[in-house]
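Review form for a predicted model. The reviewer records the input and the model, then writes brief findings.
Reviewer: anonymous (R2)
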Amino acid sequence: MGKFFSDFKEFAMRGNVVDMAVGVVIGAAFGKIVSSLVSEVIMPAVGLLTGGVNFADLKWVIKAATVDAAGTEIPEVAIGYGAFVQAILDFLIIAFCIFVLIRMLMKLKKKEEVVEEEAAPAAPTQEQLLTEIRDILKERD
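Model under review:
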């Protein structure tokens, strides 16, 4: 049992696992920010442009609410496609932000690779290597 926990501790403390956990937490917080941006800023502006439509309230009523003979209210059955539109907008904004972030990281990585290539000394030619080998062999004799 002790080996199991030590293996788990080793796994959990690896850099990649910790980085992934931090990414998940930051991603969840970022998702909340984007959801708030969409529902509180973007969708009201879009609603204003479309004549005051509140997208959160958009729905397709399959069966209207009714009251039965006993006086109990039976709620309506509806498909809330307005909330779905907002969720799609959330997804598109998050996907765009991730795309931009990854693109920036790739550009930075390419710049680092170019700097490393420039900083690395040129590899010796085959002729230089053969000359060095010949000189070493002459010194041995």
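Findings: Strands lie at 60-63, 66-67, 73-74, 77-79.
Further findings: The first strand starts at residue 60 and ends at 63.
Recommendation: see findings above.
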